[in-house]
C-alpha cells in the first residue's frame, strides 16, 4: 500500500494525459503535433511513465504501433478519467475568466484572414485578455518565439528548429506594382522585359531561404533585376516608397486591391503564376503556452481550417449540392 500511495503522490498527471493523446493519435509524431511539443519530448514522457509504473505500455517497432495488455488497461482508465475532468472543468468554465496578456508577433506582409477573425472572436469570449502585437520580420519571429519572448508568431519562414512547431494557416499571392509617378504607370502593353534595369523596392526577406524567396526567384527567372534602391522589413514603408515613385516592388494582392481600385497603384507583369507565400503559425515546443495562449491557438487553428475549406472547397461542394438538390451556394 505504501508503494501505491507513493506512486500516486509522485506521478505526474501530464504523463498520463500525454499517454492518452499518444494512443488517441496513433503515433508519437501526431501526438507531438497536437500538443505543440517536440517528438523527443513526447517519447521521453512515455518512457518516464513506463518507468514510474514499471511496465511496458506500447510495443514500438519500425512501422508498427501496438498497445500491450497493460497499456490497453491503463488507456481505458485514463481516458475515463479525462472525460470526468472535462465534465468538471466544463461546469466551472462559465465562472472562470481567462486573463493575462498575449504576446503576438506578425510579419508585416503576412495577411491572414483567420488571424483577423480570431482576434475578434477571442476578445468577445475573453475580454480580460489583452494583446501585445508587434510587426517583426519572420526571421526575428523565429528567434523571439524560441527564446520565449513571444507566445505566438505569424510568419512566412519555416526553418527546421528543434524548439519550434509550425502549422500552416493559409497562403497569399504577391504581385509587382508601381505608383502614379512611375514611368510605367497606366500602360497596358507591358511585358516583363519592360521592368529590366528599373529601380526596385524590396522587403528584407526577398532572398534565398527567407520568407519572400519566391518573389526573388520570380525576378531572377524573368531576368528583371535592377538597382535595389530601397529595402525595408515593414510593408507600410515598402508601400510608401512604391507610392512615392521611388521604385516598383512586390505587395500582397490583398494590400494592393483597394489601392488599384482607387488608382494609387498600377499592376505590372507578370499577371499569372504569381509568387505564393505560405503563412505559418509559430509556437514553442519548449516553453509551455499559457491557458490564454492555448485557447487562442485552438481558435486560430479552427478559423484557419474553416477559411481553407471556404476558399478552396466550398465552391465545388456548392456546385455539387446545386446539381443534386438545388442547394444554395456557400
UniProtKB/TrEMBL annotation:
Protein name listed in UniProt: LysR family transcriptional regulator
InterPro entries membership: LysR_HTH_N, LysR_subst-bd, WH-like_DNA-bd_sf, WH_DNA-bd_sf
Family statement drawn from the similarity comment of this UniProt entry: Belongs to the LysR transcriptional regulatory family.
This protein's UniProt keywords: DNA-binding, Transcription, Transcription regulation
Domain HTH lysR-type, residue spans: 11-68
